[in-house]
C-alpha cells in the first residue's frame, strides 16, 4: 500500500513525465503515434519510478519503449529542471508498456466474432 507521500509523488511525476514525453515525441516527428503515460509507481524509498506507457498503434510499442529508454537521461534532466524545488532526488525511470488498451480491444474483437469463446 502506498503512503500519502508516494501517492503525491506518483501524481506529480505522471503529470510532468507525460508533458515531457509528449514534447519529445512532437520534436522527434512521430506524427502517426499516440503515446501517453498511463501510470507511475514509485518505490517506497522514492528512488525508482516505474512508468507505464500506452502506445497506439500497439505494434510500435517496442520501438517507442526503446526510444524512451535511450532518452532516459534527457527526460531525467528535464524532470530535475521542473521538479528541482519539489523533490530532493529525482528517481530513476523504468519504462514499461501498458497493454490494457490492446487487451480490451482483443476481448471486444473476440466477443463480436461469430465464434464467441464464451458461448
Quick description:
The protein has 119 residues and is of the alpha+beta class.
Structural class of the helices, strands and pairings? alpha+beta
| Number of helical elements | 4
Rough shape?
globular
Strand proportion: 15-25%
CATH first level: which class?
Alpha Beta
Could you give the order of strands across the largest sheet? Answer: 1-2-3
Instruction: Please trace the helix and strand order, writing H or E for each element.
Output: HEEHHEH
What's the overall average pLDDT, rounded? 84
Radius of gyration: 17 Å
Q: Ends: how far apart?
A: 38 Å
Count structural domains.
1
- The CATH superfamily name is K homology (KH) domain
Helix proportion: 40-55%
Counted beta strands: 3
CATH architecture descriptor name: 2-Layer Sandwich
How would you describe this protein?
The chain is of the alpha+beta class and 119 residues long. The protein has a single domain (4-112), classed as 2-Layer Sandwich (GMP Synthetase, Chain A, domain 3). It is built from four helices and three strands. It has helices at residues 4-28, 61-70, 72-83, 100-112; strands at 34-42, 48-56, 92-97. Strands 1-2-3 form a three-stranded mixed sheet. Strand 1 (34-42) and strand 2 form a beta hairpin. Helix 1 (4-28) crosses helix 3. It is globular, with a radius of gyration of 17 Å. The model has no long low-confidence stretch (mean pLDDT 84).
